[in-house]
Amino acid sequence: MGFKTFLFPASVRFRMLDNGHLQIRGIKKTDEGVYNCEARVAARGEIDYKKITVVVNVFPTIRVRQSEVNATADIGSSTMLACDADGFPDPIITWAQCFMKSSTHQMEDLPTLSLYLHEGPREHLDREHINIFTFWLFSELFNNIALESGEKYILNEDGSELTIKDVKKVDEGDYACVAKNKAGMKTEEVSLNVFVPPKITYLNNQTASEFDELVTLTCEASGDPTPTISWSFENRIFTEGEQVPFHLFHCFSV
Predict the structure, then answer these.
(1) 3-state class of 69 per DSSP?
(2) Cα–Cα distance for residue pair 134/139, rounded to 1 Å
(3) Do 47 and 40 touch, CB atoms closer than 8 A?
(4) 2: burial class by Cβ within 10 Å (0-12, 13-18, 19+)?
(5) b/e per residue, 31-65, with b = 16+ CB within 10 A?
(6) Do 59-196 and 2-56 have the same topology in CATH?
(7) Which CATH code of 3.40.30.10, 2.40.30.170, 3.40.50.970, 2.60.40.10 fits the domain covering 59-196?
(8) Terminal Cα distance for the chain, rounded
(9) Helices marked H in 101-248 — which ranges?
């Protein structure tokens, strides 16, 4: 019993081996489909054939809608981080908040990992090895806390949109959009910057006598960026270092 020889378009990717196997190098999504294997004994007119369905899984790719998002920590404010993923099967998207394992973690403290690419489809090998290296490096440097829908976070149906409710300064940092399917996993980061409106945190109201030599009024404010403190009296605004004959001021923060 012999093997039927199939003719394919001129390509180094398809190769019939001596044992009758069909080898496809650097398989692509366009190679997906039904392949026929036929065995024939010509002298006796005997023939048999089978069909095999080839399904090609496609490595996930991620498109981040905004790599850097700005938000303000107002009461009841919310912000959204979003990414879209492609691949086959459809990737499952999850989100994680990234925290450095140690603020003193130095790159030289990490072990050395070398990548060697052997003969074969370079595109596939490059992508596979780099993905392994990226995941390893990511796990070495960061503690990732998976985020789920609840009081603080809302995920839409396919996971592509993460809404953070009641945004605070502690929410600032890097968030990882993770897309995973049978072919592998891809991670992209989104940075969230949280700005805090100015707020006067301390004000010292003093009672002064009319002829006191020196009265100091204290006003402190917090915020991010750090707010500038200014003083005014009636229609006059005072500048830093200015010598004035007044003792009582009103303060405001800008």
Answers:
(1) strand
(2) 9
(3) yes
(4) exposed
(5) eeeeeeeeeeeeeeeeeeeeeeeeeeebbbebeee
(6) yes
(7) 2.60.40.10
(8) 89
(9) 122-141
pTM: 0.65
What is the DSSP track for 179-190?
EEETTEEEEEEE
Q: How many residues does the chain have?
A: 254
Q: What is the pLDDT of residues 45-86, one digit of tens each?
A: 889 999 999 999 999 999 999 999 999 988 789 999 999 999
If one counts every other C-beta atom within 10 angstroms of the C-beta of residue 212, the result is: 10
**Nearest C-alpha neighbor of 146 from the set 95, 185, 98, 192:** 95
User: Residue holding tokens 């806390």?
Assistant: 145
Among all chains, which residue has been given the structure tokens 């979003």?
82
Domain 2-56 sits in CATH at 2.60.40.10
For the chain, the domains span 2-56, 59-196, 205-253
CB 125 within 8 A of CB 184: no
Count CA within 13 A, CB hemisphere, residue 166: 4
Among 89, 86, 83, 97, smallest CA distance to 183 is for 89
Residue 94 corresponds to which tokens in the numbers above?
């999850």
Residue 98 reports pLDDT greater than 60: yes
Task: Report the amino acid identity of residue 178.
Answer: V
Question: Alpha helix (H) ranges present in 116-230?
Answer: 122-141
